[in-house]
Each structure stands twice: as C-alpha cells, then as structure tokens.
Amino acid sequence: MAGKTDRQFFFEVQLNWIEETKGALTAKEADGLIHVGTPAKFGGKGKPWTPELLFLSSISSCYMTTYIAFAKKAGFEISHFDCNTIGQIEIVEAKYKFTNINLYPKIYIARESLREKATAVLEKTNKSCLIVNTINAAVFFHSEILLDKHPKLAKA
Known about the structure:
Blueprint: E1 14-19, E2 22-26, E3 34-37, H1 51-74, E4 80-92, E5 95-109, H2 115-128, H3 130-134, E6 138-141, E7 144-147
Parallel strand pairs: 5-6, 5-7
Antiparallel strand pairs: 1-2, 2-3, 4-5
C-alpha cells in the first residue's frame, strides 16, 4: 500500500447479544455501554441505536474531534460546534450500501476576527478526518462558520 507506515493503532469493542435483535456494546477504553439493535425499517423493534446511526455518529464525532484538535494547534478555541449528518442508503449491485453522506457542521466563533483561522481549520478537517477518509461513500460538506451571539469563550 503506497504511503503506509509502521505506525499502527488498534481499537476494540465487545458486543454481547441480549435478545431478539438487540445487543450491548462496551469497550475497555470507554465508559458505559450502548444498547444497539436492528432499525425498525429492517424489522427491528423499538428505537435502539442501530449500526446505521452509529456509523453516521462515528463520522460526526470524528469530524468534531478532528476540527477541535486542529483548532487547538492553530491557537484558537471555538464557542460551540453542532453537526447534523445524513446518510443515504441505496441498493448497489444487489447490496445495501451508504452511497452519500452529507455533513452539516456549524462552527461558532466568539469574534469575527477568528473567521479566517476557523475557515482554514475547516478546510484541513475536510481533508484529514480519519473516518471520512476510510469510507467509500461520497461525502459532502455543507459547513457554516457562525458568529456566536453569546460566546462563552474569550480566548484568541
């Protein structure tokens, strides 16, 4: 594989089946557990966290943590971060597959003077998010940088 290095990281989760189409996820590196199950659209019951929702959540949370890490390296803090993520599943070559992922991150800044830095970090995040770089679906970013009307942070 071109560009591959010897640097490796391993992550592990444990799934334990509970009943019917429900299970519980745990990890040594995380507190608590997450109840998971089949979505109602595919015959599941109730409203558990589903593999599809967890997949989209991994994209959103990776994007957020990547943005925050790059912002810290750039020497500024954001006031707030929201990200809605919508995934489209289609049947491709007789298989269900996520084909399009739309991220709608909203980055709130305390002062207009931070907009240029926030934009540069946004562009770097779009190229560097681990989960986004790992998936095959097309990913579209609909980013906004907004001035926080009631900033909680006063750092440059």
